[in-house]
Amino acid sequence: CENGRNFCNKIWNALRLVKGFEIDQSKQQDEISGLAVQWMHEKLKSLQLELKKNFEAYRLSEAMMNIYSLVWTDFCSWYLEMIKPAFGEKIDQKTVDDTIEIFSSICTILHPFMPFITEEVWHHLKERSEGEDCMMSLSANVETYDKELLGSLETVKDVVSKIRDLKNQHGIKMKEALESSVMNSSTSKALFDRSGAKEMLIKLANLSGFTLIEEKPANQLSFVSGTDEYFVAVEIEINVEEELAKAEEELKYQQGFLNSVMKKLGNERFVAGAPEAVVAKERKKQQDAEERISILEKMIEDLKGRV
């Protein structure tokens, strides 16, 4: 019951935020908001395909948890922060319209589980014609979604979270803007060539700048996200021993993860019997883990040289 009340409050607070936006009719939608809108549309498509599988298998509790996660984490916690204008600024009309469309789609998907609340929210989002009710709305027929886009945004979110964690661990105020960078690679270049990705990272992590670099900078905090190494410039004395311990712990985790993947791939019955796409996914996990381990080993070697 407590989780249910909190969930309802989260939805109502999201509604208040969306309806409380001050709009600048002359303002154009920026790259960050455009990317955020694309991401939420693809998240909804992914959710609908997952719900279809769960409904067909009568896994209603899992279906509800899928929706709960998207609403609480993706929409309320991440998406609304992505599109929220800076303090004292106004938002553009297109982003508000896109957000109302996304929120309406969420109401449609959530309606079978929370009919009264979603109906109320549905009519608060915008003026509706008579008979244009949430219970009569239909979800779009979805067959596929953009996995690459979702993967890119998950990486951006991971980098943001890790920069925030670094600030917290080292007593740096979240509002303090820091300089950050990433080693130039095919994956990091592809990610930040995507329109709005770099700008989104700078906004959410509160960075003063972000660049792709060819050589590792000295005396900066670093971490691994995906298969790339990121750096953060801080004006504090870095505790090399603490950073070494963290890197060794992460290396141990990645080695354990790789071992679990290798056991699966070493099982002839699994490789012979599993669909080709499933086996390919495991091989990709192996490749990514090996790349992360290589980065961490070099990071540890460098830290040991500074102890």
Could you describe the 3D structure shown?
Strands 4-3-6-5 form a four-stranded mixed beta sheet, with helices on both faces. The chain is an alpha/beta fold and 307 residues long. Helix 6 (147-169) packs parallel to helix 8 (197-205). The chain has helices at 2-20, 31-56, 60-83, 93-110, 115-125, 147-169, 186-193, 197-205, 240-265, 268-273, 276-304, and strands spanning 23-24, 91-92, 178-183, 207-213, 221-225, 228-233. The N and C termini lie far apart (52 Å). 65% of the residues lie in helices and 9% in strands. The longest helix is centred in the last third of the chain and has 29 residues, at 276-304.
Give a quick rundown of the structure.
This protein has 307 residues and is of the alpha/beta class.
Taken in chain order, the helices and strands follow as HEHHEHHHEHHEEEHHH
The largest β sheet comes out as:
4 strands, mixed
Helical content stands at: 55-70%
Class from helix and strand fractions: alpha/beta
Strand content: 5-15%
- Ranges where pLDDT stays below 50 over 5 or more residues in a row are none
Number of strands: 6
The neighbouring-strand order within the major sheet is 4-3-6-5
Number of helices: 11
Name the average pLDDT.
92
Task: Name the shape in a single word.
Answer: globular
Radius of gyration: 22 Å
The termini sit apart by 52 Å
